[in-house]
């Protein structure tokens, strides 16, 4: 593997002429980690969002953001060339809970044959293949509030899971299972600001629409050994594109509407 060594990332350095406000700047209490293809916290300004690997020679590069917080797609495409690029590391915009996917085959795609993956028109996302793409974070809270923006048409999948030995899950959807719960430990589940019944079929109806949705979940993760997204024990792997994946370590129901409005700023989802 060839590693491209570059100087400290400088594409979007803060200056007096740049005023940036992050969508989550007003909602930092109890933030656990923030992974995204855009800048969501102004305190993280000037730092990389992702580390990517290109397909042509396995070289790696940190990718940051433009002055408006959008992913630096110019640098991304210049690096990937006509090939593809995959996310090796999601950098935590809130602190030190970065997650690195060491196996090349498990890294989700961000560039496909010279074109940036999109979750909506002009909006970059990360494509999980429904097979083995996924990440696992071993530093998890006992209570989790999850906010994710995702586009999928998959008949089955799960928004959050833990690995062996228990293979816990939450936010599980399945078009063919009308009675199974998304998870018994869920206290709140909503899509696009509207509460969703805690069944797999009900969640499938509103998530697997082929258009971006904003998913909100409050769940008791006590006893879990880690939390992850994507590949899940072979049966409920996610085939879809994700822009944001945010976790809080507390019940955020009092701020739910505000957080959802901030993530959906400009009405790009609903």
Note the beta-strand portion. 25-35%
Q: Note the overall shape.
A: globular
Count every helix, treating DSSP H or I runs of 4 or more residues as helices: 3
Q: Low-confidence segments, ≥5 residues, pLDDT <50?
A: 1-17
Give the structural class: mainly beta
Number of strands: 19
Main beta sheet: 7 strands, antiparallel
Residue-averaged pLDDT = 90
Helicity range:
under 10%
Distance between the termini: 42 Å
Reading the helices and strands in chain order gives EEEHEEEEEEEEEEEEEHEEEH
What's the alpha carbon Rg, rounded to whole Å?
A: 18 Å
Concise overview:
Helices cover 9% and strands 35% of the residues. With 270 residues, it is mostly beta strands. The model is unreliable at 1-17 (pLDDT under 50).
What is the strand and helix layout of this fold?
Layout: E1 31-36, E2 50-54, E3 60-63, H1 73-80, E4 85-90, E5 99-100, E6 109-112, E7 115-116, E8 118-120, E9 123-124, E10 126-129, E11 134-137, E12 143-152, E13 156-161, E14 169-174, E15 186-191, E16 194-195, H2 200-207, E17 213-220, E18 227-230, E19 239-248, H3 256-263
Antiparallel strand pairs: 1-19, 2-3, 2-4, 4-5, 4-6, 6-7, 8-9, 10-19, 11-18, 12-17, 12-19, 13-14, 15-16, 15-17
